[in-house]
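New to this. Please check this record:
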Amino acid sequence: MKRRDFLRTGIGAGLLSGALPLFGGLESVNGSPAMAEYDLAAVRGGSGGDMFDRAIEAIGGIGKYVKKGQTVVVKPNIGWDAPPERAANTNPEVVARIIQRCKEAGASEVYVFDNTCNKWDRCYKNSGIEAAVKAAGGKMVPGNTESFYKEVDIPQGVSLKKAKVHKMILESDVFINVPVMKHHSSTRISLAMKNLMGVVWDRKFYHSNDLHQCIADFCTFRKPDLNIIDGYNMMTKNGPRGVSVADVTNLKALIAGRDIVAVDAASTKMFGLEPSEIGHIKIAHDMHLGNMNLEELSISKQKMA
């Protein structure tokens, strides 16, 4: 994408000019007083793991989402054979910290997988996620063959009426969605809802049957219990895979919440865009799958030293 086209989309314009506000447009949203527990948390300025700890505390603590003896499935973006600094995949440190906190909360097992775009074993290894998961006590699960998926009905879907879904999503007690914050050539941005394309087998159907509608439709079947959007490094152009580290800005941001529409809406602000400009966010909001009107939510905005 040429620089003038990149600017015209609105994505990253503030980043390129150096004028992006600390919370990417969230400063003007919500004037709620300090609360014991927030709908969303937006944290800037720390390491990936430390920002997660701050965010999860603001939205109720890990014990609100994970109970003793439960099985947890964590779904990062591991779609690309690229190193962590390229931001094509989720930050391994964020994934590892989530697993650690789930285990501390009493999770019996924490599984991690993705239906990758590049060769699955190279994605798992070269993303740094496989090593991080094992070190944290989690288990990597393949997603590379159709036998791992089971067909389900999606009766409330408009375009997506059936899908083959990874068995870990169907069998685990808790589903934690951990996308990386990045540009995408087909949907403008790739965040929490878009990351769920990695739990189904046939993604080609989405692309040929109203991509934005299908992304929203899947949320009528299964929404994650918790969404953690990793913006430690953010890919601002040439997504979803990226070309080089020149596509990446070290944003040092993380957004967390249960409402998948709301976390996507808040993250959209980091790109200098409005939630209503992103097709699947607007559709999901209109389908009452979540709330993109951030002014109606309580948001904890924290800056780490």
About this structure: The longest strand covers residues 226-235. The two ends are 35 Å apart (CA to CA). The first helix runs from residue 3 to 9.
